[in-house]
Amino acid sequence: EELSIELPVRVARRGVESRIVLADNETNTGTPDAALVRLITRAHRWNNMLATGQAGSLQELSAKSGIDRSEIGRVLQLAWLAPDITEAILDGHQPSELTAHRLKRMAGLPLGWTEQRKALGFA
């Protein structure tokens, strides 16, 4: 007896890994990605240091943290993610293809929350 099951799937790339993902289940379900959480936390910490005067510039922040200024610039933009995107990442409900590497390397992340949702796969 032959049984055939058809499901809508797609191949999702995550770094060097490829996975088959059910099309109806394109978000992770509750296990936070530690690298993404660290990235968001770092962005908010650095933003707070600049806002409170603990660091007066990216150059000073770079010297204090020992991180290259261009890296700080790439990460810092994540402090302005839409609150629901930040919450989804912290809860582990981000799209499966959203990785820390992809998020950090994304040039020109939109400031508008609607555009962010589209660019990052939340809409």
What does this protein structure show overall?
The model has no long low-confidence stretch (mean pLDDT 87). The chain has 6 helices and 2 strands; from the N terminus they run E-E-H-H-H-H-H-H. By secondary structure, it is mainly α. It has one domain. The longest helix has 18 residues, at 34-51. The protein is 46% helix and 10% strand. The chain starts with 8 loop residues before the first strand and ends with a helix.
What's the topology here?
Blueprint (H helix, E strand, L loop, with lengths): L8 E6 L2 E6 L11 H18 L6 H8 L3 H8 L6 H9 L8 H6 L7 H8 L3
Antiparallel strand pairs: 1-2
Rg, Cα atoms, Å: 18 Å
Q: Strands of the biggest beta sheet: in what spatial order?
A: 1-2
- Uncertain residue ranges: none
Tell me the number of helical segments per DSSP (H or I, 4 or more residues long). 6
Q: Helical content, roughly?
A: 40-55%
Overall geometric form: elongated
How many domains, as an integer?
1
Structural class: mainly alpha
Please report the distance between the alpha carbons of the first and last residues: 42 Å
Strand proportion, as a percent range, falls in 5-15%
Q: Main sheet?
A: 2 strands, antiparallel
Encode the helix/strand succession as letters: EEHHHHHH
Determine the mean pLDDT.
Answer: 87
Number of strands: 2
